[in-house]
Amino acid sequence: MFKFLGNKRLIFLMFGLICFFILMGLTLGPRVPMTWPEKFVKDSVSWTQGLFYKPAAAIAGFFEDIRELRVIYEENKTLKLTLTQYARDTQRLNELEAQNKRLMEALGFTERQRQTNNYIYRIAEVVTVSTDPYNSATTINLGDTDGIKENMAVMTVDGLVGRVSKVFGFHSNVQLLKEITDTDNNSKAIAVTVKGNDDVFGMIESYDKSGELVMNKVDQGDQIKVGDTIITSGLGQVFPKGIEVGTVTSIGPGEFGITQKVMVKPKASFTHIREVFVVEVPEVK
User: Fold this and answer.
1) Phi, psi angles (nearest 5°) of residue 264
2) What is the role of the protein in this entry (predicted)?
């Protein structure tokens, strides 16, 4: 008997089995209606649990919302950065596509010109444009080291835009066509003729406020009509022959009614110029 009581493990095991059977009996046995003290205790416990549960749930929900807001903020920040990068890449792509299109047109232009004359067309990029309304000088990225010289003609694929006015080591200034012509200085006049009709002769001497060039000294007998293309004649010793200047828009009487006054719309635009060609005429040996 004393040995049996001395085995503590066996005592605990028997006590556990007894409690288990008692609990099973209470659970599986017939349910006895709860007394009012039991109901009071149960209701009190439930009310107390609810009293603590709601604030705890609210606090837990608050911190959960903060965590979700943080996640949303980080996602939104990432999306904004991605969208900004996409916008920059799209803009850069559009610029490259536009530049590629212009260069392809320039390539086609030089190939056509090679079949027409033996001029050398050096393509240059416009790096700065003057904002001074009284001085439309433009700077290109070719200079003395590239063989550029003063008074070389400058054009785009559309037509004549100006001449090289000053040359530096690695860049040059270009005076645009509308600044070259000057009624007070006929030395700046441009000798021109009609494309396909070398018998016509005239001098572009000024740039009208309407945005057109004024061609004077056209003989009354010269056969010229609206729509004709005006090109350089090569007689002025500055601009080589054959460069397109513009299109005839109107013909009227000139000074003293002796000559004709012809209005010419420039072929090339003087704004938003990106690339130009400096025309080099090979020396005749």
Assistant:
1) -125, 125
2) Involved in formation and maintenance of cell shape.
